[in-house]
C-alpha cells in the first residue's frame, strides 16, 4: 500500500433485487467506475437522466496510472463538479528538459496562455481524480452507484439490453434501454458482444515507478533519450502531487516483467538515475505494455462504448482519460435528446463518427511519439539521433523532437453536425464550425467570470454586441424566441460595454474584448454552441430561421 | 540565401491547429519511406533524397551552409 495515499473502500450494499428476485428496469446503465464511467454518469445527471453505475471493484485506481489531465479535460471536469478539486490538488509544471545521452539538449517553458480559466495541464495521480469523481457521483440523487457489482453476461435484443450482475450475495438481472460500456481496455462487454477492436501491439515494455522524494526536487518534466544510466532506452520523470514523482523506464520487449518489478532490480535503476545523494522511497511499481487500436464503430445499437473500451493509445501525450472524458462529453447530450424523442437514434452515429475522428487523431499522435521514442529500425534511430543533435542549436530540430504531444481537443471540422460558414461571412481565428470553444474572461454584473463556465450542457446562441442596453426590440424578441423551441437554445449576449440585462436574456461583459477577439466577433455576430462546447455554426447577423436550421442539423433533425 | 533553421513545414490548403503538426506529418512521411528497407537500401534512399532536395534548392550558398551545419554535429 502507498504511504502517501489511503485507498478509500467504497461500501458494498446488497442489491434489493437479490431478495426480491425482481428484474431491475432502468433507462441507462454505465459499466465501469473509472474516470470515464464516472464522467459518463456525471454528464448524464447534468441532463437529469437517472443512471445505474456498476463496478466490479470497491476502490480507486491502484498506482498513479493516468498522471496528466489536459486543459480540455479540466474544463469538462468543471461541469462535472470536480474541476476545482483536481486543479487544487494537482501540480502545474511549465519547464520541460530533454536530455540526449550525457547532456541536456534543450529545455522549454510552457508559459500558460493568459486569460484562460484552466492551465494547459495539471499532473495528478489517477486515484485522486477517481476519488473526487466517485464522491461527486455519490452525492448526486440521480446516480445509483453500486460497487462490487460485476456484469457477467450481456445480451441485446430489440430495444432492450439485458445484464446479468454478480455480487457476493448472488445474481440479479437488469434490463436497460441503453448501456454505456466504460469497462476499460479489456472490455468484457465488448468481448461478450463479439465485437472487434483493431490495431497493433507495440513490442515494448515500460517499467513505471512512483517515487517519494525526501528532499526538494524541481517541478519539471525530464525526458532522457539513451541516457548513460539506462543505455539505448528512454526514461521519463514526471512530477505528481504529494512529493510523488512518476518515473517511466523503457525496458524493451525481451524484459521479464515479474523480474523487473522486484525492488532489488528497480532501486538500482532509480539510484543510477537520481544519483546516490538523492533520498527517495519507492511507493508503487508496475510494468506495462500498450496497444494502439480502436473499434470500427463506438455505437452498436443500444450499447455505446467510451474511453479505453472503445480506443487505446500509447501513454505518450496523455490521451487516455483525457479523450475518454471527451467521449462522454460528446455522448451525454446526444443520448438525452434521443431518449426524449427529440432527435433520431442516428444522432448517436455522430457520436461514433466524431469520436472516431478524435481517436484517430490521438492514435496518429501517440504512434508518432512512440515511433520517435522507440525507433524500430536503424534508419529511424539515425534520424531520431540526428534530430536530437540538431535540437541543441536549431529551432527546427527542437520542433521535431517528439517525446509526447500534449493532448488537445479535436477540431471536429468535418462533422456532419456542423453548418458551414455561409458565403460572404468571413471569419478570422480558429473558432470555426466544429472547433472546441476557446475560453475568455468576462464579467457578470461586475463580477469576474469565465465564458466556458457560462456555456455547456445545452445549446446556446452567443450574440455579440457593442452595447446590450440598446439592442433593438426585434433582436431581443428573436433571441428570446430561440429558447421556446422543442430543443431550447438559450440566448447569451456578450456586450463590449457594461450592459444592463436585456429583459430575460443574460448579458456578460467583455471589457477587454478578449472574447470578441478569440471569436472574431463584430456587433451582430452569432455563434450556435453545442452542449459539449463545440461550435455548431456562426453568422455575421442574427437570423432565427438560420439558427433553427443549424440546430436541426446539429441534432440530426433534417 | 540564409539557411532557414526555424520550423518551416506546411502543406498548401491544410489548416493546422497545433504548431507541431506539420513537422510531425513530415517526420512520419520520412520514416514511412524507409519502412521494410534493409539498412543498405535505407542509405541509398537517403542519398537519393539528399540529391533530389539539393537540386530543388539549387542555391549553392544555401547548400554550403547546410553542409556546414550538418557536419558540425557529426
Mean pLDDT of chain A: 94
Strand content of chain B: under 5%
> How many β-strands of chain B, per DSSP?
0
CATH architecture of the domain at 16-91 and 123-197 and 292-367 in chain A: 3-Layer(bba) Sandwich
Uncertain residue segments of chain B:
none
Biggest sheet layout of chain B: none
Radius of gyration of chain A: 25 Å
State which percent range the strand residues of chain A make up. Answer: 25-35%
Task: Please state the average pLDDT score of chain B.
Answer: 96
Structural class of chain B: mainly alpha
Q: Return Rg of chain B in Å.
A: 14 Å
* Proportion in helices of chain A: 25-40%
Q: Can you tell me the CATH superfamily of the domain at 16-91 and 123-197 and 292-367 in chain A?
A: FAD/NAD(P)-binding domain
Q: Largest chain-chain contact? A: A-B, 27 and 25 residues
The largest sheet of chain A, given as strand count, sense and whether it forms a barrel, is: 8 strands, mixed
Distance between the termini of chain B: 24 Å
Helix content of chain B: 55-70%
What does this structure look like?
The complex is a heterodimer of chains A (558) and B (74). Chain A has 558 residues and is α/β, with parallel strands linked by helices. Among the domains of chain A are: 16-91 and 123-197 and 292-367, FAD/NAD(P)-binding domain; 441-554, Glutaredoxin, CATH 3.40.30. Chain A has 16 helices and 27 strands. In chain A, strands 1, 2, 7, 8, 9, 10, 18 and 19 form an eight-stranded mixed beta sheet that branches. A seven-stranded mixed beta sheet of chain A has the order 5-4-13-14-15-12-16, sandwiched between helices. The model of chain A has no long low-confidence stretch (mean pLDDT 94). Chain B has 74 residues and is an all-alpha fold. Chain B has a domain at 37-74. Chain B has helices at residues 21-33, 39-57, 60-72. Chain B is globular. The model of chain B has no long low-confidence stretch (mean pLDDT 96). Chain A binds chain B through residues 364-365, 368, 371-372, 377-380, 383, 386-387, 389-390, 392-396, 399-400, 402, 405, 408, 411, 413, 430, and chain B through 4-8, 15, 17-20, 23-24, 27-28, 30-31, 34, 37, 39, 42-43, 45-46, 69, 73.
Amino acid at each position: 500500500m502507498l504511504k502517501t495515499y489511503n485507498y478509500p473502500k467504497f461500501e458494498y450494499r446488497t442489491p434489493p433485487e437479490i431478495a426480491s428476485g425482481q428484474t431491475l428496469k432502468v433507462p441507462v446503465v454505465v459499466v465501469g467506475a473509472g474516470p470515464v464511467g464516472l464522467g459518463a454518469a456525471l454528464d448524464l445527471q447534468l441532463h437529469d437522466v437517472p443512471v445505474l453505475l456498476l463496478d466490479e471493484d470497491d476502490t480507486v485506481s491502484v498506482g498513479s496510472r493516468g498522471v496528466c489531465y489536459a486543459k480540455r479535460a479540466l474544463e469538462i471536469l468543471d461541469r462535472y463538479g470536480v474541476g476545482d478539486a483536481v486543479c487544487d490538488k494537482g501540480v502545474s509544471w511549465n519547464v520541460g528538459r530533454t536530455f540526449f545521452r550525457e547532456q541536456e539538449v534543450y529545455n522549454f517553458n510552457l508559459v500558460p496562455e493568459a486569460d484562460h480559466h484552466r492551465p494547459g495541464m495539471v499532473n495528478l495521480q489517477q486515484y485522486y481524480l477517481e476519488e473526487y469523481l466517485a464522491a461527486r457521483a455519490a452525492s448526486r440523487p440521480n446516480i445509483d452507484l453500486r460497487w462490487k457489482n460485476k456484469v457477467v453476461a450481456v445480451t441485446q435484443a430489440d430495444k432492450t439490453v439485458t445484464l446479468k450482475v454478480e455480487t457476493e450475495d448472488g445474481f440479479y438481472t437488469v434490463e436497460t434501454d441503453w448501456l454505456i460500456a466504460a469497462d476499460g481496455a479489456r472490455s468484457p462487454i465488448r468481448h461478450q458482444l463479439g465485437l472487434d477492436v483493431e490495431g497493433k501491439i507495440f513490442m515494448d515494455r515500460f517499467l513505471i515507478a512512483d517515487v517519494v522524494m525526501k528532499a526538494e526536487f524541481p517541478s519539471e518534466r525530464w525526458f532522457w533519450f539513451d541516457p548513460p544510466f539506462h543505455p539505448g532506452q528512454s526514461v521519463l520523470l514526471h512530477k505528481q502531487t504529494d512529493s510523488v514523482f512518476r518515473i517511466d523506464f523503457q525496458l524493451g520487449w525481451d524484459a521479464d516483467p515479474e523480474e523487473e518489478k522486484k525492488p532489488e532490480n528497480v532501486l538500482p535503476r532509480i539510484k543510477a538515475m537520481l544519483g546516490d545523494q538523492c533520498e527517495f522511497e519507492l511507493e508503487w511499481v508496475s510494468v506495462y505494455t500498450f496497444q494502439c487500436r480502436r473499434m470500427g464503430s463506438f455505437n452498436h445499437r443500444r450499447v455505446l462504448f467510451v474511453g479505453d473500451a472503445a480506443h487505446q493509445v500509447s501513454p505518450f501525450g496523455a490521451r487516455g482519460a483525457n479523450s475518454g472524458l471527451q467521449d462522454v462529453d460528446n455522448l451525454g447530450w446526444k443520448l438525452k435528446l434521443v431518449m426524449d424523442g427529440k432527435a433520431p437514434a442516428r444522432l448517436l452515429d455522430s457520436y461514433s463518427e466524431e469520436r472516431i475522428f478524435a481517436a484517430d487523431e490521438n492514435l496518429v499522435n501517440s504512434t508518432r511519439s512512440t515511433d520517435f521514442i522507440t525507433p524500430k529500425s536503424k534508419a529511424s534511430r539515425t534520424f531520431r539521433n540526428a534530430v536530437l543533435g540538431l535540437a541543441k542549436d536549431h529551432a527546427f530540430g527542437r520542433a521535431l523532437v517528439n517525446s509526447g504531444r500534449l493532448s488537445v481537443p479535436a477540431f471536429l471540422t468535418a462533422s456532419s453536425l456542423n453548418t458551414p460558414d455561409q458565403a460572404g461571412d468571413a471569419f478570422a481565428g480558429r473558432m470555426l464550425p466544429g472547433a472546441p470553444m476557446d475560453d475568455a474572461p468576462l464579467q457578470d454584473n461586475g463580477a469576474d467570470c469565465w465564458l466556458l463556465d457560462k456555456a455547456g450542457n445545452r445549446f446556446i446562441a452567443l450574440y455579440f454586441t457593442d452595447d446590450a442596453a440598446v439592442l433593438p426590440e426585434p433582436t431581443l424578441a428573436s433571441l428570446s424566441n430561440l429558447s421556446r423551441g422543442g430543443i431550447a437554445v438559450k440566448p447569451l449576449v456578450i456586450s463590449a460595454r457594461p450592459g444592463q440585462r436585456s429583459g430575460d436574456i443574460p448579458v456578460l461583459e467583455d471589457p477587454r474584448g478578449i472574447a470578441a477577439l478569440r471569436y472574431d466577433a463584430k456587433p451582430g455576430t452569432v455563434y450556435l454552441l453545442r452542449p459539449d462546447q463545440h461550435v455548431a455554426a456562426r453568422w455575421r447577423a442574427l437570423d432565427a430561421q438560420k439558427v433553427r436550421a443549424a440546430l436541426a442539423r446539429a441534432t440530426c433533425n433534417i | 540565401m540564409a539557411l532557414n533553421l526555424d520550423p518551416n513545414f506546411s502543406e498548401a490548403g491544410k489548416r493546422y491547429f497545433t504548431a507541431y503538426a506539420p513537422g510531425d506529418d513530415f517526420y512520419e512521411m520520412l520514416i514511412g519511406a524507409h519502412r521494410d528497407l534493409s539498412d543498405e537500401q535505407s542509405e541509398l534512399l537517403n542519398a537519393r533524397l539528399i540529391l533530389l532536395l539539393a537540386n530543388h534548392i539549387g542555391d549553392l550558398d544555401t547548400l554550403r551552409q547546410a553542409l556546414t551545419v550538418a557536419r558540425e554535429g557529426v
